[in-house]
Design goal:
The protein is mainly α and about 250 residues long.
């Protein structure tokens, strides 16, 4: 659709994406509405921006468009820089369709036979964030033991759980797959730091030594369906502290 002779087709796709009665609008809407239960439904402005983004090439993405989706400025700027590095013709909609949720992305990671660069995964995760997908996975070291606790959003995150299990595994028999998963977990950390000392956009907030669902910090504890508690060795502890400032606190 980026080719010059496809301009008319592209215009029709954009019209369909922005038309609430259009098939493409409904298709995109069914994906971007698949968000955490703690999220509010996207506003009409956010949904319109997400629909337009889905049919945009990297050179058509603007800060105003990304901010209309609800992205914080720092993350929007970072996504634009990463899209610019891809060169012309990169289709955001392709990435969104292949990995519309963190679970789908984690499944693709587990299926890899060769490592993918952290930079490539960060771009994919940034695009998921632009479509209102939460990819935050806070972790906290448990004092006085060789345990680290990862707070996962729901029991549906089984691929993510498997990814983390392999990333922190003490048994190195599957060393290559562990490196693949470590690179992927590092990409998750990159996408959630640098947006404030106490905030992991968009869902999680750090408060009094624990990670809480953003805006819901109260005496009932973190609103998370389950944790993944993992026993780790010294090398793994050092690796997590190196890539994850939250985990080092």
């Amino acid at each position: 659709m980026s080719a010059p002779h496809c301009v008319q087709l592209r215009d029709l796709a954009i019209q369909s994406a922005l038309n609430p009665e259009g098939a493409l609008y409904r298709e995109i809407g069914s994906i971007v509405r698949h968000a955490s239960s703690t999220w509010n439904a996207p506003s009409a402005r956010q949904l319109a921006a997400q629909c337009k983004l889905a049919v945009s090439s990297n050179d058509e993405v603007t800060l105003d468009l990304l901010r209309d989706t609800g992205l914080p400025l720092a993350i929007a700027e970072d996504l634009i820089r990463r899209l610019a590095a891809e060169g012309p013709g990169f289709e955001i909609g392709t990435t969104m369709h292949q990995t519309p949720t963190l679970d789908r992305w984690a499944l693709s990671v587990l299926a890899r036979t060769q490592p993918v660069t952290v930079t490539s995964d960060v771009l994919t995760l940034r695009i998921l964030q632009a479509f209102a997908q939460d990819v935050a996975i806070p972790c906290v070291f448990v004092e006085g033991s060789k345990h680290v606790r990862f707070s996962l959003c729901s029991e549906g995150d089984q691929p993510v759980r498997s990814l983390i299990d392999l990333a922190v595994a003490i048994d190195t028999a599957s060393h290559r797959q562990r490196e693949v998963c470590r690179n992927a977990y590092e990409a998750i950390c990159v996408t959630h730091h640098g947006t404030g000392d106490d905030r992991l956009w968009p869902q999680w907030k750090r408060c009094t030594g624990f990670c809480w669902t953003n805006g819901l910090a109260n005496a009932d504890g973190p609103r998370s369906d389950f944790y993944l508690d993992a026993i780790i060795d010294d090398e793994t502890a050092q690796w997590i502290r190196r890539i994850d400032p939250i985990g080092s606190r």
